[in-house]
Amino acid sequence: MEKYDRIKLLLKDDFVKLEDAKIILLGVGGVGSFCLDCLRRSGVKNITIVDYDAYDESNQNRQMWSELHEGESKVEALKSHYPEIKIINRRIDEEWVKEFDFDEYDLVLDAIDDTKAKLAIAQKCYKKLISSFGSAKRLDPTKVEVADIWKTYGDRFGSKIRYELRKRGFKKKYTTIFSTEEALIKEKGSFMGVTATFGLTMCSQAIKKMREQKNV
């Protein structure tokens, strides 16, 4: 069998939609790196990743390929493993989001934790957005859920995002990945079982949305 034959068995004619889609993934840390790997292994070819960070030793408990590239740029290192992807080595802040043209992309995947940037992404890209809330401080991957932004609960970061969106008069819906597990600690401790589940769930939701599109 060839590389993608097994997922073609599941997707049938919809596999072409994955090959033709254009996706931008914002943030390639504990959530984003697993999402990227899942997308590529599922046959998505046209992916742009955006991140400014470099790998350090503390990333190695949860981020794909980090143990091989300590001190290196994340996007540059990931391109060595996924040569087909496009990379943007840039800090994702509110100003960048407002200036960047997202029109060419079919889906925007938000795996960052900067509040102002996250709000700007939601306001600008909600029609084609899948956004991740906090995956740190938790140990139970079975508590990871998917809902529209206004139906999320159990996450203080998510509560803050909803509050700030309401202040801005934002009432639209978009897909969000979150955990209902109560944070176990105040510090940003992390467990790959949860962070990876967020990333793989984001990939799954992206595939779902690509399949729903009539003409990608």
Poorly predicted segments:
none
Shape: globular
Order of secondary-structure elements: HHEHEHEHEHEEHEH
Number of DSSP helices? 8
Quaternary state reads single chain
Q: Could you give the order of strands across the largest sheet?
A: 3-2-1-4-5-7-6
**What is the number of domains?**
1
Overall pLDDT metric: 95
What's the total count of β strands?
7
Query: What is the CATH topology classification name?
Result: Rossmann fold
CATH class assignment: Alpha Beta
CATH superfamily: NAD(P)-binding Rossmann-like Domain
End-to-end distance: 27 Å
Share in helix:
25-40%
Q: Give the C-alpha Rg.
A: 17 Å
Largest sheet: 7 strands, mixed
Indicate the proportion of strand residues: 15-25%
Question: Which structural class best describes the helix and strand composition?
Answer: alpha/beta
- What is the CATH architecture assignment? 3-Layer(aba) Sandwich
